[in-house]
């Protein structure tokens, strides 16, 4: 044996033992940390979960929005698994330079696979390195480059992972060329092309070296490959918050244990507060004993479920969520990525206490005064951050608060973060859980929400208006609108219950949508009725503001009324009502077939019960309180978050626009699943927007940039926000002929005929 070979064997048969020991120790530590979280049932339908995992990993379906990145990452991810065989082979090559794995080592298809993924991994990581550099904050827009999706990511960790993959793939390719060179010398009649189709052409670089010299190079390269690989293992074992590396392992369980076993994202319904596997209700609170522990929402990191703690560890800091977040893109402190990273760092800092046995916790705190101090730091509070330095709103080690309250309350719950995340992190659920604690336990919520809660509790609507005014929208209609409980006993013999919603009943602009839909249903001879003053708010804003018990009160009242009305099929004009009735009321015993009005109207047009024939003529005229119809030659459509991302309803509104004669749809750059929020969700409709740029103005400017004469919406919340944005621009003397309308208003203009 040469000195080089002896040194290689000595290093490579000792250092890996340290690596494996540290890795298993860290895995056990992770397991203990996750067990310290609250329980969560995530094992239903294991077959579907396994199939989802296979599809998401092998198909990289969650990364397909960035095709080049997805392809590059696919090769690097699969090469990590497939090329493990070359690591095993390298250990034997330290002893026998020409060693090949038994059976498969000389099997051509296996060799082709190895070479394909070695080259694919190398090219893939070079592409990813290039993408990271092109998107670096140093060249990005915003303060200190905050528009970069990598702003706030831990750079040395990313660079280290990239270096490791680059070095390992280069070593594998070099070893393949060395093996080809040895084969030429020892077995000159063997086909190089058969066994080394993608590396044999490089074997000539070793021409002139003797077999012994080539073997020494094999020892050297194999040693480098092994040491680089296990240096990486040791590094990540000592860095449990290194998500850019740990996601290679943790993404698999995180995807398998995702909220929905069907594979859909964690959007739509919010999860109820749970204690011991059962939803927390006012009734269950009354049954608690004096010694029973009660957790309302999340006030400490250990109040998260074990799946939440796993989510934080899995974050790979890719910044897709950050790049799509409406709060972050309008210069507010909320970044879903930074939030996950901070919770990960904080959980790791508290891990020695959380994972210690109960009788050992006092000793742990005595030995670590910093940890003892950390236990006193509130999860949400006032950090005194600088708005121009958003990173200062996140302090995983305190001293004042871990996360600033402005971070928590900037969220619109639009779901863009969840939709974009490649490893299925459930950001919205975690944010609402923290809001629940702030609202129900600390009573620490924005002042404006106090009025909202009071109006919802006392009047059953956010505006605080009387129930009798709920039918004002129907005044002067040329037909009667039946009211359940007044005109009819129940919905027997009727096609649909028309759920008007609070905005549709009280907000002047939204009333036009309500009238338009009612007229269209009447024209299509659809039998419908309304609840009138029997309807109350669905509770969407209360729930997303963290007031779970107020939501339950409103929802239970509505479920009871709907049951008495014998409602089974409901049509709604509000995306938030649509989501709540369809996805959340089943949690309280109310299951219905719920249609958004664009879905129903699109169906009626397809069935020829509504026939659009009229074309826009001359200068477009705007709608009025009595005449809801409005149309123009060009329209752009804004996807409501709670219709689109939360419920995947993208096609019906566009198909409906496509049926309008003479009307051209001009899409905004951000549309469909990448649509930008109007700023109203997550109860933000009722809060002042004091930080950064107004979200609704940002979105309105994008809509106006298309040159369209009409901005079409499918939700009254969106209508209010975009109308306010348009008014701000019209006050500057521009865009006077533009109007924000509901698609139903444009359809109404198209189905009306002269005479």
Automatic annotation (TrEMBL):
InterPro entries associated with the record: 4Fe4S_Fe-S-bd, 4Fe4S_Fe_S_CS, Cys_rich_dom, HdrC_iron-sulfur_subunit, Helical_ferredxn
N-terminal signal peptide: none
Keyword Transmembrane helix: yes
Segments crossing the lipid bilayer: 6-24, 71-96, 116-135, 156-175, 217-238
Keyword Nucleotidyltransferase set for record: no
Organism: Nostocoides veronense
Entry-linked PANTHER family: IRON-SULFUR-BINDING OXIDOREDUCTASE FADF-RELATED (PTHR43255:SF1), IRON-SULFUR-BINDING OXIDOREDUCTASE FADF-RELATED-RELATED (PTHR43255)
Record's protein name: Heterodisulfide reductase-related iron-sulfur binding cluster
Keyword annotations: 4Fe-4S, Iron, Iron-sulfur, Membrane, Metal-binding, Oxidoreductase, Transmembrane, Transmembrane helix
Domain 4Fe-4S ferredoxin-type: 306-333, 399-431
């Amino acid at each position: 044996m040469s000195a080089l070979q002896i040194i290689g064997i000595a290093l490579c048969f000792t250092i890996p033992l340290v690596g494996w020991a540290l890795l298993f120790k860290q895995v056990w530590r992770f397991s203990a940390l996750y067990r310290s979280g609250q329980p969560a049932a995530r094992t239903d339908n294991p077959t579907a979960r396994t199939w989802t995992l296979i599809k998401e990993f092998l198909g990289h379906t969650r990364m397909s929005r960035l095709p080049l990145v997805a392809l590059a990452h696919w090769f690097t991810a699969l090469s990590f698994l497939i090329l493990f065989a070359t690591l095993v082979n390298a250990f034997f090559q330290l002893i026998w330079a020409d060693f090949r794995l038994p059976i498969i080592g000389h099997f051509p298809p296996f060799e082709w696979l190895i070479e394909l993924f070695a080259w694919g991994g190398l090219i893939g990581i070079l592409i990813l390195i290039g993408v990271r550099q092109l998107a670096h904050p140093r060249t990005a827009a915003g303060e200190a480059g905050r528009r970069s999706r990598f702003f706030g990511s831990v750079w040395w960790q990313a660079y280290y992972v990239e270096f490791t993959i680059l070095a390992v793939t280069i070593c594998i390719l070099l070893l393949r060329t060395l093996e080809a060179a040895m084969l030429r010398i020892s077995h000159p009649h063997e086909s190089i092309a058969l066994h080394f189709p993608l590396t044999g052409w490089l074997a000539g670089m070793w021409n002139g070296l003797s077999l012994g010299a080539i073997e020494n190079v094999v020892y050297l390269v194999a040693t480098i490959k092994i040491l680089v690989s296990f240096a990486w293992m040791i590094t990540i074992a000592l860095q449990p918050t290194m998500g850019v590396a740990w996601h290679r392992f943790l993404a698999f369980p995180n995807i398998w244990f995702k909220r929905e076993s069907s594979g859909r994202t964690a959007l739509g319904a919010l999860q109820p507060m749970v204690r011991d596997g059962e939803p927390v209700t006012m009734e269950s609170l009354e049954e608690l004993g004096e010694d029973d522990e009660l957790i309302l929402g999340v006030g400490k990191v250990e109040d998260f479920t074990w799946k939440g703690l796993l989510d934080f560890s899995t974050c790979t800091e890719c910044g897709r969520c950050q790049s799509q977040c409406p709060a972050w893109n309008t210069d507010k402190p909320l970044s879903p990525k930074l939030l996950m990273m901070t919770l990960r760092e904080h959980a790791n800092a508290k891990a020695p206490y959380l994972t210690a046995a109960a009788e050992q916790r006092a000793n742990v705190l005595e030995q670590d005064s910093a940890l003892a101090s950390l236990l006193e730091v509130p999860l949400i509070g006032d950090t005194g951050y600088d708005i121009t330095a958003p990173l200062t709103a996140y302090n995983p080690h305190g001293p004042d608060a871990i996360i600033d309250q402005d971070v928590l309350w900037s969220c619109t719950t639009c779901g863009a973060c969840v939709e974009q995340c490649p490893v299925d992190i459930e950001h919205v659920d975690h944010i609402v859980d923290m809001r629940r604690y702030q609202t129900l336990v600390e009573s620490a919520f924005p002042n404006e929400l106090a009025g909202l809660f009071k109006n919802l509790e006392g009047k059953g609507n956010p505006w605080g208006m009387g129930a009798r005014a709920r039918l004002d929208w129907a005044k002067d209609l040329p037909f009667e609108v039946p009211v359940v409980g007044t005109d009819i006993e129940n919905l027997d013999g009727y096609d649909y219950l028309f759920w008007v919603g609070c905005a549709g009943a009280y907000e002047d602009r939204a009333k036009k949508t309500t009238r338009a839909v009612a007229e269209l249903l009447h024209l299509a001879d659809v039998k419908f009725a309304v609840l009138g003053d029997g309807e109350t708010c669905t509770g969407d804003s209360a729930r997303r503001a963290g007031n779970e018990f107020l939501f339950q009160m409103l929802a239970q009242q509505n479920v009871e009324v709907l049951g008495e009305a014998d409602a089974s099929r409901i049509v709604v004009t509000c995306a938030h009502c649509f989501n709540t009735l369809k996805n959340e009321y089943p949690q309280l015993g109310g299951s219905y077939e719920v249609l958004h009005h664009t879905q129903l109207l699109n169906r009626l047009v397809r069935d020829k019960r509504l026939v659009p024939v009229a074309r826009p003529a001359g200068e477009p005229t705007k709608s009025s309180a009595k005449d809801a119809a409005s149309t123009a030659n060009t329209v752009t459509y804004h996807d409501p978050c709670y219709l689109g991302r939360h419920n995947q309803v993208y096609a019906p509104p566009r198909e409906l626009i496509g049926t309008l004669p003479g009307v051209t749809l001009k899409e905004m750059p951000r549309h469909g699943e990448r649509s930008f929020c109007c700023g109203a969700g997550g109860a933000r409709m009722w809060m002042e927007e004091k930080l950064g740029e107004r979200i609704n103005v940002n979105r309105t400017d994008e809509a106006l940039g298309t040159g369209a004469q009409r901005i079409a919406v499918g939700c009254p919340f969106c209508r209010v926000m975009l109308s306010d944005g348009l008014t701000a621009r019209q006050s500057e003397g521009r865009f006077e002929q533009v109007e924000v309308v509901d698609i139903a208003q444009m359809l109404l203009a198209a189905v009306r005929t002269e005479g």
